[in-house]
Amino acid sequence: MDSILIEGLECFAHVGVPRRERQKRQKVLIDLELGLDLKKAIRRDEVEDTLDYAAAAAQVKRLVETRSFRLVEAMAGSVSEGILRRFKVKRVRVRIRKFSVPGARSVGVEMIRGRKA
Question: Which residues does the annotation mark as catalytic?
């Protein structure tokens, strides 16, 4: 399976278990790996045969920046569901990192979701 990658999508989100942590937006970095068959795009060299990665990035950014999440796990689940609903991908890998734990470069979650057969 082929993949389209979007790495380091910078978003500012309300996320955290304590209410005080959610009161102020904090930076999160999101990486996406969107699995799909790119044979037709390779052969024809036409944009309609692939995925509009700018639209995918914009959708993720809009979702993350307009909702409030207690858990990055819930955020990643919402991102995965949204991508699978809107785009013709077979699989999505979402990695979200935030920078709120003292002494750690980042903390986060990675999940892989796919279409049901």
Answer: 98
